[in-house]
Predict the structure.
Amino acid sequence: MCGRTSCHLPRDVLTRACAYQDRQGQQRLPEWRHPDKYCPSYNNSPQSNSPVLLSRMHFEKSADSSERVIAPMRWGLVPSWFKEGDPSKLQFNTSNCRSDTIMEKPSFKVPLGKGRRCVVLADGFYEWQRCQRTSQRQPYFIYFPQIKTEKSGSIGAAYSPEDWEKVWDNWRPLTMAGIFDCWEPPEGGDCLYSYTIITVDSCKGLNDIHHRMPAILDGEEAVSKWLDFGKISTQEALKLIHPTENVIFHPVSHVVNNSRNNTPECLIPVDLLIKKELKASGSSQKMLQWLATKSPKKENPETSQKAESDVPQWSSQFLQKSPFPTKRGSAKLLEQWLKKEKEEEPVAKRPHSQ
């Protein structure tokens, strides 16, 4: 399942991360609808607003279906046929939609049949590993591997604000398949756009944490096909819905358990063996300083300016095996989470069992 996400990139950085080619092959940036409703957050929960990517044709019938816009929408789909005047009175949970029952439930089948497909944008999502012998649950942050490029360089070399801007500007957002709908209040008023995240069986790498995961669209081709409802049929689009192994993760603090906690601490990795935050040294201290001073703020579209880059290049990490029992064997080790110094190379670790 997926019940909590993070999306704290400033609006212009998120826009650049969503650059795409239209049907004519031209490089474009998606435009925003209601940008004032976007509130960057380290800890998004259902019923909050999150940015989603969708075809411009949903708003402008004359537009090409390959053109894209970003719109903040309510997490938790409110069906267009809902008759109550208060969306919170919806009696069932629509924050997630199981892929295996998507064509059975009218709440999801109807908007899907209308081509109302979207891509939910996030830095990553949180998931909790349940312990078999205790009631305690350990949260993890899960996201795309971040690839070092010539532009981003090395974290170890990022000592100036200019260098950090290049690093954060290169973050690859997680792109999750979703369905949206438009609900009109029975007594009149503005339409409410809302969405659900499609879920699938977990990949092998995440199965020890949870048996379900979001349907992640890995790559521009998958995103383009999912969004282009004018060209790609529902049947073809649903072939894109399957687990992906292309994710990495690290354990985080229990601070994230409370959705009211919207601080950088939600993302900072913790060591499960010593139960405290990993000690940062050298260049990683720069990242922590940034997180401590750049809390998410609601942006004013009229005063938008070039943002300071906002997400560190978490390009390599490893996860120590949890001391808590898991459902299947030892957790898969990942690469080292932060390079301590520019000249240091990550040391390969071997899986160990307990």
User: Anything to note?
Assistant: The longest strand covers residues 174-183. The longest helix spans residues 283-293.
